[in-house]
Amino acid sequence: MKNFIITLSIVLFSFSLLGQTAAENNKTNTNNLKYKTTTVDGVTIAYREAGNANNPTIVLLHGFPASSYQYRKVLNQLADEYHLIAPDYPGFGNSDFPDPENYTYTFDNIATTINSFLEQQHIDSYAIMIQDYGAPIGFRLATAHPERITAIINQNGNAYEEGLGEAWAGIKKLWKNRTPQTEEALLPAFSLDGLKWQYTHGVRDTETVDPDTYNLDFYRLSRPKAHAVNLDLFYDYQNNVKLYPKWQQYLRDNQPPLLIVWGKNDAFFPESGAEAFKKDVKNIDYNIYDTGHFALEEDGDAIIKKIRGFMRKLNK
Questions:
Q1: Catalytic one among 62, 83, 201, 293?
Q2: In terms of residue numbers, what domain contains 103?
Q3: Is 83 labeled as catalytic in the residue annotation?
Q4: Residues 32-78: pLDDT tens digits?
């Protein structure tokens, strides 16, 4: 009996230690995510950072109308193996919203700011995760410094004309003829209902979409001059389309490891945009999900599992 009690005590003590260790690990993982700021050419850039900087780096580039908040699941789940950094562009998220008289809101200029940000952080070897606006930012980084890009993780980040869906109709009219009328026709995209639609259109279950996403975006798009700035970016997007051949040549020449994790019901970038990458990249880890534009909202766990497996193969 005495031996039984001693054995039981040892077992209970061991379980206690295991539970304490697990709690400490969970605490470490939770506290690992940091919310930081730095100044780049006079503009305060906010960014989220997680993981050990000695591990392989993934730069998370957000879309419209979002911010680094869209990558919260990636930051929380992959920090155990990877160094993750997710900046907010000028005018987005928690970064400065400089007056358009002092900052030129074009994709060229935003990419320049993000490149300077990464150089300031001494990040010169990294994978990029791109989504929506993250694609034109990411491909500018890649074509300027192909030697720095270790891989591309692509969640509805377009680089082909056949990947422009029906939702671009109003913006294409703006490209053709920018007038008060073509601008006004796009303003519903900045309303709360319009922003909510971008997150919930094409999803299987709208209850999987965090309402903080579109509510935060609406708050930021309600600031003075926010509509004008984002209309400027809508108009400038046509210059991304003109660069598609250059980006495609980069893919052909460099053959970066490419993971496709694409929401097929995206009205802006349908599955045809994902398929197009097969023309230029020989080896693609190709995955399509029955969801919408912000696929991480509904299928984040499955996508993050794919990212982990993809990155592990790169770093063997």
A1: 293
A2: 35-314
A3: no
A4: 899 999 999 999 999 999 999 999 999 999 999 999 999 999 999 99
